[in-house]
From TrEMBL:
Pfam families: HNH (PF01844), ScoMcrA_N (PF26345). It comes from Lentzea tibetensis. InterPro entries: HNH (IPR002711), HNH_nuc (IPR003615), ScoMcrA_N (IPR058807). GO terms for molecular function: endonuclease activity; nucleic acid binding; zinc ion binding. Residues 248-310 form the HNH nuclease domain. This is HNH endonuclease. The lineage of its organism: Bacteria, Bacillati, Actinomycetota, Actinomycetes, Pseudonocardiales. Keywords: Endonuclease, Hydrolase, Nuclease. It comes from the Bacteria.
């Protein structure tokens, strides 16, 4: 029997002993040093991962705790075992990696769908391809990326977390995060829309358009859940094309003599006078995951006030200007 036979219950027993003894005494008693890279997280507390697994071995029937020199800890051994037993692992220090964002999870879910909601096995070249694609996304600064940032092993763990959260999965479930569940349910409820979104992200990376994407001004004011939506960043960049925006505003003024929001009828000049003259925001009516990279015409843009523009982009499913206008009219009546 080896450390691979350690059960979840045995690990919980070792955690209980750790809590009762205190971390330093627990480590000294069993001959372990403090963990350097990986900590087990349970009920909001952190535990030395290798020490917990080694001591947990002693809670198996007829077995003794393992000494530190009897097995290797780390990413290739202890971490997969703890993940498999349903525990969360935190990577620390120089190896700590940023949290997964929506665009990354969309690409992971896309591959799970194509593989019948089964994670890629070790040695599958598709896992390496997905790892490289995720590393190419311009979502995380290089200085925030640890040594194992979106490595094939980390991709496998994320696929495991999402796949075992699928409603039809019958085995032992691992612990996926809240955003994992949201993206999973989006694929189950709106499969074609999410497939197109994944395709648009992939196409943008392969063309180099997303790789060169700059941060969008005011994006930090968006809801926290929207910060990882790479298509939103690209969509806003397209909407904020200064030349196209000016052309649209001139066209509407020539045709109607004023700039009213197409949703709520707000007119900046009517409210703010000269300061608000010739001002409005422009919204591209076709999401990028539907249109892909195409030439934008003036007919593709809608005139909106800032509030209505924000409401259209809020949430995971965008409303069209007519849909939002219907909500406004209903509220007014």
């Amino acid at each position: 029997m080896t450390f691979a036979d350690v059960t979840r219950q045995a690990i919980l027993s070792a955690i209980k002993e750790y809590d009762a003894s205190g971390g330093e005494q627990f480590l000294d008693q069993h001959g372990y040093r403090r963990a350097r890279n990986y900590f087990l997280v349970h009920n909001g507390r952190e535990y030395d991962s290798k020490a917990i697994v080694g001591v947990a071995h002693g809670y198996l029937p007829g077995r003794s705790p393992l000494r530190a020199d009897e097995f290797s800890g780390g990413l290739a051994t202890v971490v997969p075992l703890l993940h498999d037993r349903g525990f969360e692992i935190r990577e620390i220090g120089a190896n700590q990696n940023p949290s997964w964002l929506e665009a990354e999870l969309v690409l992971v879910c896309e591959q799970l769908v194509l593989n019948n909601w089964k994670p890629f096995r070790a040695g599958d070249s598709r896992r390496d391809d997905l790892s490289r694609l995720l590393q190419a996304l311009p979502l995380h600064p290089l200085e925030d990326r640890g040594r194992t940032f979106r490595s094939p092993d980390s991709v496998k763990r994320k696929m495991d977390n999402i796949a075992t959260s699928h409603p039809d999965y019958e085995g032992t479930r691992t612990r996926g995060g809240k955003l994992d569940m949201e993206v999973l349910h989006a694929f189950l409820e709106r499969p074609e829309e999410m497939r197109l979104e994944a395709e648009a992200i992939r196409r943008g990376v392969e063309s180099g358009e997303l790789v060169e994407l700059r941060p969008i001004p005011d994006l930090d004011e968006m809801d926290a859940a929207e910060e990882g939506r790479i298509l939103l960043r690209r969509h806003l960049a397209r909407e904020r094309n200064p030349k196209l925006r000016k052309q649209k505003i001139r066209s509407v003024l020539r045709r109607h003599g004023c700039l009213e929001c197409e949703v709520c009828d707000f007119d900046f000049e009517r409210v703010y006078g000269e300061r608000g003259a010739s001002y409005a925001e422009c919204h591209h009516v076709t999401p990028l995951h539907v249109s892909g990279t195409v030439r934008t015409t003036l007919d593709d843009l809608a005139i909106l006030c800032a509030n209505c523009h924000r409401m259209i982009h809020r949430g995971t499913t965008w409303l069209t200007p007519p849909e939002l206008r219907e909500l406004v009219v209903q509220r007014r009546s």
